[in-house]
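Action item from last meeting closed. Structure (261 res):
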């Protein structure tokens, strides 16, 4: 069993070569702050570089949240340039997950909102627990998804459902997520990890070169060039009053009053 020390991640590899990464910031529902994003980036490199790791599982600590999104307190200080930069950085890290040479499975154990849903969608498949709620609430903050959500969600659930989810900002519960193909399976909390490991074991029985080639070939079917556009729009919104109002309202626990300015 290998382990590695991070501030906000728990990382260990079991004797079968399954690496399990747990996003570990439970007091903030595992929200992705700058340190956490950097650590996630390092963890992906660890997985790529370690030949004894065959499958990578990403989950959240606790029983309430996978990841409740990007850290809204940090977001609230962004300007146009720093907003676009952050979006490009998150997109880059999540693209590394999507193009990982080994299968990556998200175990969505509760809320997967905004950047959390985007993280789950960057993984190759998703297993959800019965309490999962997956959504893109960024518009309620005067923002849009910035870590690839506008690009990956339509590929997974189709344009119409993606439009509905992003424009309403309303999450879908586990059952609906299964129905629309956003997750592959839904399991009770106490069975989900064992089930996910069983899928991992089925995958790792196969040739690693073939797994890698399959991931590359499937990803090639879903190439698109909207990521830069998403980052630009994300940055532009960071300079608006609506964004200031939306993020302040969340932090002050009140309803946002948008003016369209
Ligand atoms: N960022 C920072 N802090 C967060 C957070 C986030 N995304 N989500 C939750 N928290 C914090 C809360 O502020 C709270 O902290 P304090 O106890 O210090 O006040 C703690 O986590 C627990 O959260 P709540 O008290 O709000 O828990 P709840 O059960 O009442 O509600 C929730 C749970 C519905 C998930 C609610 O926390 C929520 O709506 N969170 C924000 C979800 C969101 O909007 N995510 C998108 C972020 S933007 C984004 O991700 C941009 C992008 O695409 C890159």
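Sequence:
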């Amino acid at each position: 069993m290998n382990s590695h020390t991070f501030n906000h991640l728990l990382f260990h590899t079991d004797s079968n070569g399954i690496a399990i990464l747990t996003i570990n910031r439970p007091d903030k529902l595992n929200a992705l702050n700058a340190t956490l994003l950097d650590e996630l980036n390092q963890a992906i490199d660890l997985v790529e570089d370690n030949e004894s790791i065959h499958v990578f599982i990403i989950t959240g600590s606790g029983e309430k949240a996978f990841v409740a999104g990007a850290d809204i307190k940090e977001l609230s200080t962004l300007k146009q340039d720093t907003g676009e930069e952050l979006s490009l950085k998150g997109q880059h890290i999540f693209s590394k997950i999507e193009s990982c040479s080994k299968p990556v499975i998200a175990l969505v154990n509760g809320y997967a909102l905004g950047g959390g849903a985007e993280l789950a969608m960057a993984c190759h498949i998703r297993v959800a627990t019965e309490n999962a709620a997956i959504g893109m609430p960024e518009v309620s903050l005067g923002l849009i998804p910035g870590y690839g959500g506008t690009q990956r969600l339509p590929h997974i659930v189709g344009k119409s459902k993606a439009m509905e989810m992003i424009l309403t900002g309303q999450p879908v519960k586990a059952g609906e997520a299964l129905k629309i193909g956003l997750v592959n399976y839904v399991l009770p909390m106490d069975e989900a990890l064992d089930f996910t490991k069983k899928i991992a074991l089925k995958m790792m029985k196969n040739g690693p070169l073939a797994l890698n080639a399959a991931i590359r070939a499937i990803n090639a079917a879903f190439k698109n060039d909207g990521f830069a556009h998403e980052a630009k729009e994300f940055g532009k919104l960071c300079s608006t009053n609506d964004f200031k109002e939306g993020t302040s309202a969340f932090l002050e626990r009140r309803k946002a009053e948008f003016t369209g300015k």
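Note appended to the action item: Residues 156 and 168 are 18 Å apart (CA to CA).
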